């Protein structure tokens, strides 16, 4: 028997001569069988898949509840008005300071 061998790298393609050694048969070849799926194993696989799906759904529900708890509550109108007013006061104070600095530089 002959074949060509190509190795990785910069090695050339080489012709290889092989000698066929006849060996004694120890075992018979492939034997096909008509074995169907085991009903008990199929039931266990189905039960496992069902449990995995239930756990996945439960985890999603838990994460959704945790996300809702982490959301900040909406501010009511009086809190919003207070924040707006304090922001206006801060901007007025900044303007006063800027005007005072300009006047002091002149």
Topology:
Layout: E1 2-5, E2 14-17, H1 39-70, H2 77-105
Antiparallel strand pairs: 1-2
Keywords:
mainly alpha; two-stranded antiparallel ribbon; 8% strand; elongated
What is the count of β-strands?
2
- H/E element sequence: EEHH
| Biggest beta sheet summary | 2 strands, antiparallel
What order do the strands of the largest sheet run in, or round the barrel if closed? Answer: 1-2
Q: What does this entry look like structurally?
A:
- This protein has 106 residues and is mainly α.
- It is 58% helix and 8% strand.
- The protein contains 2 helices and 2 strands.
- The protein has a two-stranded antiparallel sheet.
Task: Provide a quick synopsis of the model.
This protein has 106 residues and is mainly alpha-helical.
């Amino acid at each position: 028997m002959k074949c060509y061998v190509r190795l990785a790298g910069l090695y050339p393609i080489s012709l290889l001569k092989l000698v066929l050694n006849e060996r004694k048969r120890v075992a018979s070849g492939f034997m096909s069988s008509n074995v169907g799926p085991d009903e008990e194993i199929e039931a266990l696989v189905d039960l496992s898949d069902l449990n995995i799906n239930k756990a996945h759904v439960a985890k999603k529900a838990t994460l959704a509840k945790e996300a809702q708890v982490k959301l900040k509550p909406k501010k009511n109108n009086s809190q919003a008005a207070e924040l707006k007013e304090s922001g206006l006061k801060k901007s007025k104070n900044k303007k006063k300071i800027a005007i005072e600095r300009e006047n002091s530089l002149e």
